[in-house]
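Priority: medium. Attachment 1 of 2:
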């Protein structure tokens, strides 16, 4: 799915599959549980600002927007991705959510000023990066955020990869979903590796912990 010449229709179907996985395998709830308390530290009546990196099909910012609506908290979410096909899918999926705006950006070359957003989030992207670039991303998320950041990713494990293999073979014929789901778990960082990266990035203290169904989170609160 990261390739620029990926088949557009296959990619759209893959994104639909990933929305289902995020919903039922804890990805959306993991992000909400980690990010919402940080954003709620803004003053009453103040608009909380969130930058969502590598937004994919937009299900993460939509989930956050729904949560803040339920809480009666105003929020403005900027969701970025480098893939125009993904952004088009995300804009359609987020139709009706005026809180969300989309921009085409490379997450390793962000133009935003220091502390220009209250919270920065990044879901299911850091495992696509090298360790060096992952450290750079953590450093940038810390620089751009005022209150903190959340990395919501996968935790590398044999059982996680096996579960991904079984689940995708039972639920989809899409070769992109079948390959990427397993490969993503295999490429993911471990808890210790992510802690070392946070130390190298100079963003400690950071809470790094696992969540149900093979999730790994790094949460920074300033």
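Attachment 2 of 2:
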């Amino acid at each position: 799915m990261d390739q620029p010449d990926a088949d557009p229709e296959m990619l759209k179907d893959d994104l639909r599959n990933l929305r289902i996985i995020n919903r039922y395998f804890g990805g959306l709830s993991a992000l909400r549980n980690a990010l919402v308390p940080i954003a709620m530290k803004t003053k009453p009546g103040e608009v909380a600002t969130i930058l969502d990196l590598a937004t994919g099909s937009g299900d993460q910012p939509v989930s956050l927007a729904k949560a803040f609506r339920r809480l009666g908290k105003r929020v403005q979410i900027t969701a970025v991705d480098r893939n125009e096909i993904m952004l088009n899918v995300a804009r359609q999926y987020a139709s009706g959510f005026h809180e969300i705006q989309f921009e085409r950006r490379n997450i390793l070359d962000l133009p935003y000023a220091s502390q220009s957003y209250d919270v920065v989030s990044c879901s299911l992207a850091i495992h696509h990066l090298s360790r060096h670039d992952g450290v750079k991303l953590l450093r940038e998320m810390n620089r751009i955020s005022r209150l903190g950041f959340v990395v919501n990713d996968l935790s590398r494990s044999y059982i996680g990869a096996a579960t991904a293999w079984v689940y995708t073979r039972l639920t989809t014929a899409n070769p992109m979903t079948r390959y990427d789901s397993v490969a993503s778990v295999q490429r993911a960082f471990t808890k210790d590796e992510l802690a070392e990266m946070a130390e190298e990035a100079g963003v400690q203290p950071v809470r790094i912990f696992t969540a149900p169904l093979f999730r790994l989170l790094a949460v920074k609160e300033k």
